[in-house]
Amino acid sequence: MSDAIVCLTHLRWDFVFQRPQHLMTRLAKRRRIVFYEEAVVDDGPTRLEVRDVSANVQVIVPHVSRTSGRDPRAIALHQRQLLDGFMGRDQIRSYVLWYYTPMALAFSAHLQGQPTVYDCMDELSLFVGAPPDLCRREAELLRRADLVLTGGQSLYEAKRGLHANVHALPSSVDCPHFAAARVRGSDPLDQASIAHPRIGYAGVIDERMDLDLIAAVAAHRPNWQLVLLGPVTKIDPATLPRAANIHYLGMKPYADLPAYMAGWDAGMLPFARNEATRFISPTKTPEYLAAGLPVVSTSIRDVVAPYGQLGLAHIADTPAEFVRATQVALSSDPRRHRAAADGFLASTSWDETVRRVERLLERTRSAAFMRATLPIGLRAREATDGEMADV
Description:
The protein is built from 15 helices and 15 strands. It is of the alpha/beta class. It folds into 2 domains: 4-168, 3-Layer(aba) Sandwich (Rossmann fold); 175-345, Glycogen Phosphorylase B (Rossmann fold, 3-Layer(aba) Sandwich), CATH 3.40.50.2000.
């Protein structure tokens, strides 16, 4: 088996199943994965919660006693001690260090990844509640990283000038998983009584959602049923629009999503156009398409290109435009739409994305070894030769 991956993340494994889980479960076929989550401050003793979630994937949750206070430096010190102790006990000596959050540098800057990877899946500094020193930490991580991946094309364009080895790695899709939605079976119990047409959304409900747009669409078309799956985070649930035709069904297991989508007539991406959405690349776009659903989205850059440009998604921003676009989507020819979607998705899969990651890791490791064997003067010249070619 190849080197382990020590993945330092701000996301919980048991939260919405998304990019980190897709990548790590597949990388675990050849590597041990240590998924180290951010600390939980509670009333218990300082400790590590360690659990196996699948073959070769361990989730590590550091718990820091509340008696230690909420001083970030103290919490970071406890995390460092816990992580070092775990890696020492398990004799993890050769590993890829994989960051999803630059804030993890507070307790891991002493570690030496072989290589060190920054998987920048979102522009976290633009999210509500972002730590004030996030930008400084990211600049430090960009200096340390050997390989930088971005969650979409717009993020790639924002980061490409900040590092010599940046690669766009848009989120992908498990087509067979979502294609099960094309065969309509029994509705999940909490959706079965909802009338049609149903326009659905699956994902986190947070500050990125255009709540006014959702309310307006529901008011314009009271016979349409808006079905929203996912946890409500970072916003007050009391601010969510309420109407007889808006249905919040909560977070669902990834395995159950196709069953819900099978009962939808269209998939929507009602994102606000604000700082938090400037660089997002919604994973739901290809998932809706794989499920056979027409897609209606606001003008999120990584949805407009390529999906809107290829006619795979209807783009609309104002309530009136969104209603018209949804009406067109509901009346579209499903066979023609699915054929076009399948043609686009034929070359897209999480498995292929992981094969590309493995090639990038190997190429980056080889390049780092070659640089280390060069005389110092040649290393400096080689460092200015520009971005490493993609693979």
